[in-house]
Amino acid sequence: MRSKFQNYALVLALLLLSLACKTKDDLQAFKEAEYELKGIDEVRVNGVSLLEKKKPQDFSFNEAALLFAAFADNKINATSTLGLHVALGEDHQKRTMTVTQLKWQLLLDGEQTLSGLVSEPVELHHGLNTITVKSPITFSEAQGGTSLNNLLRIATLLNQKDSHRPKVTLEIKPTLLTSVGPFELPAYISIKD
């Protein structure tokens, strides 16, 4: 009886060790992967498409009023369709990973301007991933409020020529679904533009 219990304990220990090693290997593969933003096909903020706007005059009065009211309350919701290229190492190219939650922040010229949380699961694999994300957006606050300049910079940023464009950095901090449960990466990962 005792040797039977020891055999079960040994098998269980080996199974747990195997799961822990696989989980660690999966996390390492996606942590060390290179992420590159290949395209933005849609950006809607509170229902207003921003890809069609090149300058502030392109906003109708209703669109401007809608965005200003949402901005004043710092209650903005965005929907975007992105092309995200994930380059995994040669040994990991057949892997997929489910991101259960994604914290993100957008920096303009090194200064955090926007942040948000995507709470819908997204599956990532090696190569080009086309994903649609919905996220509330929070503008960074300074001196007790949000800056209207940040809103105007963001609204016209996507269609500006590179010479006038501020340095844009997108950082993500995913929570990955592993064989032992969800695991949030400890640090943000920068996405190349």
The secondary-structure element order is HEEHEEEEEEEHEEE
| Helix-residue proportion | 25-40%
Low-confidence stretches: 9-22
Mean pLDDT: 75
Task: Write down the domain tally.
Answer: 1
Envelope shape: elongated
Give me the Rg, rounded: 21 Å
Question: Based on DSSP secondary structure assignment, what is the total number of beta strands?
Answer: 12
Distance between the termini: 62 Å
Give a description of the structure:
This protein is an alpha+beta fold and 193 residues long. Helix content is 27%, strand content 45%. The chain is built from 3 helices and 12 strands, in the order αββαβββββββαβββ.
Nutshell version of this structure?
The chain has about 190 residues and is α+β, with helices and mostly antiparallel strands. The chain is about 25% helix and about 45% strand. It contains three helices and twelve strands; from the N terminus they run H-E-E-H-E-E-E-E-E-E-E-H-E-E-E.
Q: What key phrases describe this protein's structure?
A:
ten-stranded antiparallel β-sheet; 3 helices; 193 residues; 12 strands; single chain; elongated; two-stranded antiparallel ribbon; alpha+beta
Topology:
Elements (H helix, E strand, L loop, with lengths): L1 H30 L2 E12 L2 E2 L11 H12 L3 E12 L8 E13 L2 E8 L3 E4 L1 E13 L1 E2 L2 E2 L1 H10 L10 E11 L2 E4 L4 E3 L2
Antiparallel strand pairs: 1-2, 1-3, 3-7, 4-5, 4-6, 4-10, 5-7, 8-9, 10-11, 10-12
